Every structure is written in C-alpha cells, then in structure tokens.
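Lesson 9: reading folded outputs for more than one chain in a single document. The general rule is that every protein is listed as its sequence immediately followed by its structure tokens, and records are never interleaved. Here is the first one.
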Amino acid sequence: MQWTAICFAVFLLGLSKSGIKGIGIIIVVILAFVFGEKTSTGILLPLLIFADIFAVIYYNKHAQWHYIKKLLPAMVIGVLVGVWVGNDISEALFKRIMAIIIIGSVFIMFYMENRKSATIPTSKWFSNSAGFLAGFTTMVGNLAGPVSDIYFLAMRMPKNEFIGTAAWLFFIINVFKLPFHIFIWETVSFETLVLNSVLIPMVILGFFLGAYIVKLISNVNYRRFVLIVTALGGIIMLFR
C-alpha cells in the first residue's frame, strides 16, 4: 500500500510539472503520511528538480523572465528564513496559516474573475510578498505551488506562459534549496537518492500524459481548474 501511494504521488508530480497545477498539496500530503513531514521534503526535492528539467525544456520558449526576476530575490530570502526556522516551527501551525492564506487568496481571485477585471497588480509589495512567502513555504514544506499559482493568475498570464515561467522559477529555486537539505537538514542522502531513481519512470509517465492533457484545455478553463484545485488543496491542508 505504501509503494502504491508513493508511486501515485510521484505520478501526480509529473502531472503537476507538466502544467496540471494545484495538485502539489496532494503530493505533499501523501508523502508526508508515508515518510513523515520533514523526511518527505528531502525525498521529494530531487524528484522535483528532475521534473523541473523536463518542464524547462518542454516550455522553455514560453518563459517570461521579467516575472522571474521580480520574484526570485524575495524567494531566495524566504528560503533562507525557512532554513533557519524550519526545524522549530510547529508543523500544525504552519499548515493552518498556509491553508488560510491559500483559501483567502483563492476567494480574492474568484472575486476578480467574476468582476472580469483586467487590472493587474504592479506594486513591488505584492511581488515581494508573494516571492518571500513562496520561498519560505517551498523550503519548509514544498508548498509554494499555491502561492505562485495565485501570483501568476493575478498577472493574467496565458496557459503556456504560466507553465513555462513557473518551470524556470522553481527549477532555479529547487536547485538552490538542495545544499541546505543535504548539509544542514540532512534530509537528502544516498538512500533517498536510490529511492528517487526507482521512481523516475513514474515522473516521466505523469509529465508526458499531463502535457497532452494541457494541450486540450483552453486558457479560460485552465484558470478555473487551477483556482478550484488550489482551493481544494487549501481545504485539505486545513483539515488534515
């Protein structure tokens, strides 16, 4: 049963990195249930980087680098703060705060969608806050997906630009996180890398199936899908 759960989670990881956004929380929940909260972050990280490589190759031409440059500095700071407090913060408190932020953000986005507002947030405060929160949450629990999804939705990015920009952003930040997991938290080891190597085929299968599905989804329906699944993920986190 544990192997089935792990393979399913890694398959979902491939789907997620191909552009089926909003399911990252389900992956984190499954792996945390099998391995424990902190250990699962180190097991997941190399698989994230592997899937990121596929994503940046596949969606490279769609990446919007000016958004990456806006978010990256604050994300780096968020990661460093996450390294510092990650061993001490209460897992339950972290998940409750994240769930409230995610669900609140989704409600705001639904409101903006229904108003058909074309207004795009341009303040540095908005991008820096989103970047810091994404960096902190990705370090502590690999949970930055909902934060970045909300940001890119607010920017009203088309489907492929959304996926390509997120792919490069998280490839860079996940590689940046890796030394901290190896040398400080010690959650990445030879044993976890051996496990990762066994699971790689499931990542590849999920990625290419997801890439095919993404082609069939319109921009409008894609935005709705991301909002709905992100909201569900926030609710799962709140009551888990």
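And here is the second record, again sequence then tokens.
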Amino acid sequence: MNVIRSLVFYAGYFLAMLVCGVLFLPPAPFLPLRSRYRLLNLYNHFIIAWFRLVCGVRYDFRGHERLPDGPCVILANHQSEWETVYLQLLHPPVCTVLKRELLTIPVFGWGLRLLHPIAVDRSKPARAMKQVLTQGKIRLEEGLSVLIFPEGTRVAPGSRRRYNKSGAVIACRAGVPVVPVAHNAGERWPGRDWVKRPGRLSLEVGEPIETAGRTSEEVLVEVEAWIEARLAEISEVPRPAAEAPPATEKPLA
C-alpha cells in the first residue's frame, strides 16, 4: 500500500511541478519579490497538502504563533525534502541556504533561483562560509528571513551531526532573533527512500532566541539543546548522544 501511495504522490508531485512551471515561471520575474514568493509558493502549498492526503500523514504543527513579526534566522534540523518545502511557507519571504546543484534542476531549480537563495558550493567550505555570512546579513537587511539547516546536510532519524554555527553568527551580527524548529519529517518522508510512510508528522516552532549581547556559541548551544529536546519527545526513533566537539575551532564571531 505504501508503494502505491508513493507512486500516486509522485505522479501529482511532478505534474504540479510541470503545471506550475508553465503557468507561474514566465510571469514570476516581472513581479516584486514578495508577490513572487506568494505565486511560486503555491506549489509548496500543494505538495504539503497532497502529501498529507495521499500518503496518510497526520500533521501536528505547534508554535507558529511564536514567530516574530520581523526578519529572523530560522534554524531547523534536516531529515528530508519535506522541510525544505514546508519551511518556505513558515515565515515568508524566506531566503534558504542550499547547495548550488539544486539550481540546475529543470523547472524546480529555475523557480528556486527566482527566490534569491544563498546557493553554496559545498566542496569549498571556506568560500561557502564566507558567502553565507555576507549574503545572509544582506538578505536580513532587505527584510527577508534566512533559513539554515545547521547540520549542513540531511541526517537520518536516529542519527546526529554536529551543528554549524554560521546561522547563529549571522543572527548575532545582524541583531535579529533565532527561531529554532524541530520536526520528525524523515520518519514519514525518508531522505534516501522514495517510499513514503503514513503516520504523525510533528513540527514545533520554538520561542525566538534573542541574540543581543550574546556570542554565536551561546546562541547555538541553546538552539541545539532546544531542538534535541523536542526531537526526543516527537521522534519514534531514539535520539543518540551528541558528537564530541573538535579539540579546537577557529571562532567566527
């Protein structure tokens, strides 16, 4: 049954991508940025609803009322494609830090490019870090929120990876709050398996963490502690212990 559901889901997934590419991409470059987000994110709204309907997923969303009015840095755990779709809708307009290869995907990548993401080359980490710090601050000053997955890549449920502090650094330098987000999307939409699984998908938004007068290390410790505590509550797969930090690390802020 899960295989059939997944096949039906992907039929709608690719059909929606084609329809949105034909109808929405041509006028999108001529729209103001906020209007462009609203138009192109209609695809995201459809995928989130289609996934729930076809794959037997029950959403349990909490804490959206905690989102600040102005721009912020959103830091979320990364397990699957689902959160890359949904978190675009959380606090729009939002600029996402993503791998550069995604922009080369026909239709999908073209739409992403129009949303002013920060596309980095992960094979050059030093250059990528500088790019994230520079462009992230610019996006915040332009009134966009910035979405970063501090683990840097998808991490399967039941696994853990050390958090990168670039998002906390951007927030501290710009003086905007950090909003932590925890979810168990990888248990319903696996990162390395095309077959979707029914069940409860939980996502919780935390209280904004103020950055004024604080170091990026302090902020990141609080973010990671909150996310891991929530994951321990909502995950069906047990959480592992944290990885030991490296002996030395060059400070960013």
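What the second record shows: The chain has one domain: 1-234.
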